[in-house]
């Protein structure tokens, strides 16, 4: 019998707990290569984000997660091979070099990842490819509709999905196939960072965060506090570990149900599940609409009326707009790689409405910086706020002054993150490129 050689391509499933795909690999192959392709700035992302590399916060979180996964694999006689290559050439090279017979890969919501899988299938017809949804509450077979029939709004989706059974997490794998020796030229060496920060990536840190959260009473107060702007306690903070697959939503759901059994269920505990469903909806939304997720006119093919003002976009990115609450949120993002949900809504509304910019520039910049970047949730939410996505009510514009009064009435958040920008104006040149000069009172 010929040797069965497996390649597990890790994407946003960086864990060994509740990983059915990894369990499948244990049953199906004799030797295994565990591979991860480090994310890079694509030409599309570079054009819209106008940055040349991922933010430091996002890079640190990813590297934490990879080191943690490598340690977990080491304890099972395996290791994680990290390459600085885009997926298709990395996978094809490994398949050719070591004679891979089985490929295991998460059913990723990203179109680039799915395209790489399709190319690999065409070029290697002998290859047995196994894909499973490892980062969702439900499998595609569980859904009471086909992907083409996916409800056009979240509310319609929720009403049909929230009664579905969420399967229990599968046990952590206890053994793995023998390690396959492979030394690619573009091997990336990882090193730990001890920089002080609120979020450390990795399965171990994610599980500990969840345990601490559900050991407190915060879940019972979540609905009242979730719109806070700063701190670790106002919201669950599960998203960074969910986005990178250090935690599965099924694991969080199981912990939530255990908490409700011990402490009682209320509107707040339901709201945690409600937001897991939002994340679920955007996953299937991305699977359904594919490249339409990145189209200017969105899934509605209805292009907004915008122009591009390079100076305005730079002001927004750097937190130098005339809107202190927006500046504070952007400074927080640039320093930490994280921003509250309320903050994301406010800065997105500002970019689309006050600054009149193409929403894709904001979505791309978020992609480059956020430690909890998730292709479906990020681009789906930006479409939603720009009025080209799943919201039937059209664009959502927030009154920034009113929002400041509601969520930062004493300007504490604004002052902590240095949101006041004296003399800030939207434009430094007029319509014919003449400099706009102001006097000491801010008058043009």
Automatic annotation (TrEMBL):
Superkingdom to which the source organism belongs: Bacteria
Cofactor: how bound: Binds 1 5,10-methenyltetrahydrofolate (MTHF) per subunit. Binds 1 FAD per subunit.
InterPro entries registered for this protein in UniProt: Cry_DASH, Crypto/Photolyase_FAD-like_sf, Crypto/Photolyase_N_sf, Cryptochr/Photolyase_FAD-bd, Cryptochrome/DNA_photolyase_1, DNA_photolyase_N, Rossmann-like_a/b/a_fold
Function recorded in the entry: May have a photoreceptor function.
Keyword set, alphabetical order: Chromophore, FAD, Flavoprotein
PANTHER family the UniProt entry points to: CRYPTOCHROME (PTHR11455), CRYPTOCHROME DASH (PTHR11455:SF22)
Protein's name in the database: Cryptochrome DASH
Family according to the record: Belongs to the DNA photolyase class-1 family.
Residue ranges occupied by any Photolyase/cryptochrome alpha/beta domain in the UniProt entry: 4-137
Cofactor: (6R)-5,10-methylene-5,6,7,8-tetrahydrofolate; FAD
